[in-house]
Specification:
Structural class: alpha+beta
Radius of gyration: 22 Å
CATH architecture: Orthogonal Bundle
Helix content: 40-55%
CATH class: Mainly Alpha
Number of domains: 1
Number of helices: 16
CATH superfamily: Cytochrome P450
Order of helices and strands: HEEHHHHHEHHHHHHHEEEEHHHEEEE
Number of strands: 11
CATH topology: Cytochrome p450
Strand order of the largest sheet: 1-2-7-4
Shape: globular
Length: about 475
């Protein structure tokens, strides 16, 4: 998109003209931390903040981000604040654990997300996508449709089918969608109190978050318990899914067969459920909005899916040929990273850009700012999927694009998420035409994940066959 008239800048919080005072910082930060950024934040390299709370450093310069994320010595462990926010749902699972515990969990989980496993679950993904298309087909032509609950349903269904070999019904999908929204709102507020070193039991939000967490766990506990008990009895049931790989995990270093205890296994499944459906659902909802708001890109995607797939079902070998569809999702993750902040704790004194960072400080890595850095990207706020194909953008992609993190703790499910998103977007664009609704623009809100504040409503019409 070289013509400036074609540039489309999707919604993002308007940068403040000047640095806010502490009261406005706290008030706006509770609603959405992205709302407290000034225009200079999109040009900065290292920011510092902290009033009556732990010191926080916002790292944007690529060399600093890499120093923290490529840490292999445990100098910058996952922050206790992240653990505090997510523990009621995922416990001490791989997403928040550190040290030897994390290393063991990583070795046990890696085989479940090997490339061969991604190919093995491809048909189950396809089945979930087919069911999604059937549900969307019940919407009347031209009707306004909130895509967020459906994206939550299909991504949760994909996770259930690929992890546990069962599908997710409408009631289970509705329960998880509502419970996760409730959980994020409550747990995020409690995490902010953690910045002030206030104990958890003083926060009514924490107790409400725990209640929402129990609702989420209640959806998945019966399935995990059934399979765990089967495995303990030596019954394998012919399953070939991710849970089966986890139950039969082998330490990739020693070759020794190890196993998760039941509570630990449930925590890992809950983590995969959170990371595998909530983050993907958020990004897919934004992708559908972007596609609807840019008719030219939508039409190009439609032509690509028809040229590659025709009317037949996708095959694993088709994934690499759906390049534009994949790049639309990659660009969505650039503009609306599902996890807009990563938090690490400093464990020793460091000097970064002449700032003395003391132990106990919080190091914030911010994909939202890195992906929109005016230093690293051309037209950083413009939706432009083609930027991933241009040579001049490759340095930015390499140094300032990390929606799945990178280094030792890079997301195990990155390939899984890209495959899933490509399938879902291709299926929707092939069968339906999407339009935005006048005066109904989604507003980004960053909590544990980056969602819209009030849903993402689009007008949807079935495409006529060519």
């Amino acid at each position: 998109m070289s013509d400036d008239a074609q540039d489309f800048v999707p919604p993002y919080p308007k940068p403040l003209a000047e640095k806010p005072g502490w009261w406005r910082l706290w008030r706006e930060g509770q609603r959405c931390p992205l709302r407290v950024f000034t225009g200079s934040a999109y040009r900065m390299k290292l920011g510092e903040s902290g009033f009556l709370s732990r010191k926080r450093y916002l790292l944007v310069e690529p060399s600093l981000v890499k120093k923290v994320l490529e840490d292999r010595e445990g100098i910058y462990p996952k922050s206790v604040l992240v653990r505090r926010m997510l523990y009621p749902v995922i416990g001490n699972s791989i997403f928040v654990s550190n040290g030897d515990v994390w290393q063991r969990q990583r070795r046990l989980l890696e085989p479940a997300f090997a490339q061969t496993r991604i190919q093995a679950v491809f048909e189950r993904m396809n089945e979930a996508v087919d069911d999604m298309i059937a549900r969307i087909s019940t919407v009347r032509d031209g009707e306004v449709f909130d895509v967020e609950p459906e994206m939550t349903h299909v991504t949760a269904d994909v996770i259930f089918r690929t992890i546990c070999s069962v599908s997710l019904d409408q009631s289970g999908a509705k329960e998880t969608y509502e419970a996760f929204l409730e959980y994020q709102a409550r747990a995020y507020g409690d995490m902010l109190l953690g910045l002030l070193r206030m104990p958890t039991f003083l926060s009514p939000r924490w107790w409400r978050a725990k209640k929402a967490a129990r609702r989420i766990r209640a959806v998945m506990d019966p399935m995990v318990r059934h399979r765990y008990d089967m495995h303990a009895r030596g019954e394998h049931g012919g399953y070939n899914d991710i849970l089966s790989a986890m139950l039969n995990a082998t330490d990739t270093q020693s070759g020794e067969h190890l196993h998760f205890e039941y509570d630990e296994l449930v925590e890992q499944i809950a983590m995969l459920f959170l990371a595998g459906h909530e983050t993907s659902a958020a990004a897919l909802s934004w992708a559908l909005y972007l596609i609807a708001a840019h008719p030219e890109i939508q039409e190009r995607m439609y032509r690509e899916t028809v040229d590659v797939l025709g009317t037949r079902a996708p095959q694993f070998s088709d994934m690499r040929r759906l390049a534009l569809t994949r790049n639309v999702f990659r660009e969505t993750l650039r503009l609306y990273p599902s996890v807009p902040f990563f938090a690490r704790d400093a464990t020793r004194t460091e000097i970064m850009r002449k700032k003395v960072i003391k132990p106990g400080s919080i190091l914030l890595l911010c994909p939202w700012l890195s992906h929109r850095s005016e230093i690293m990207w051309q037209k950083p706020h413009v939706f432009d999927p083609d930027r991933f194909e241009r040579e001049e953008t490759q340095e930015s992609v390499r140094d300032a694009y990390f929606p799945f993190s990178f280094g030792p703790r890079v997301c195990l499910g990155a390939a899984f998420a890209l495959q899933e998103a490509t399938l879902i977007l291709a299926a929707i664009v092939r069968d339906f035409h999407l339009e935005t609704i006048a005066d109904d623009t989604p507003e980004p809100v960053a909590r544990a994940t980056l969602r819209s504040s009030g849903g993402t409503r689009l007008r949807i019409t079935r495409r006529a066959a060519d």
